[in-house]
Specification:
The protein is an alpha/beta fold. The protein has helices at about 5-15, 25-35, 40-55, 90-95, 125-130, 150-165, 190-200; strands at about 55, 65, 80-85, 105, 145, 170-175, 200.
Length: about 200
Amino acid sequence: MIHTSQTIEILSDHLSKLPGIGRKTAQRLALFILKLPDEEVRSLANTLIELKERVRYCTECSNITEDDPCIICSNPKRDRSIICVVEEPKDVIAIERTNEFRGLYHVLGGSLSPLDGIGPDDLKIKELLKRIDARKNEMPVSEVILALDPNVEGEATIIYLSKLLRQFEAKLTRIARGLPIGSDLDFADQATLARALEARVLL
């Protein structure tokens, strides 16, 4: 293959590593960026640098934030007795869009997947147990909602967590199965996700 520009090829290589971006799409994006005005390219580059420098993980819930604790954990109007457990920060965004949930979150950072080498120690499970332990908290947790993706990895994580969490007095629920099996939370429409939260079931 003849490369007209090594820089374009390097940028295409970087872009092709992004989720859902194939090689041809990466090349189109690289050529699109090339056509942008200089100030827009610099703005994009600066934003990427700021993203890495300023965005961190909340020390309480592990959601992404620029301030620690995050805006949700530090909000005095949130119900601190309910914790909704999700896989990724994108799931927090999806649930917040419903305007139905007023509790706190706990982001695991993924789901159990032995085939991918992801075990319990690779997730924020110990931190979750520490948050729920009433002996160490001023505000006891009355309910833990498991809102994980309805796929094989999500189900395996729910089974594992439900066994661990039975040692606590908090009610353990999961969002209803209004979500199609194998889908991701952030792809669900707001109404479906809101109904799934409202119709959560006991584990």
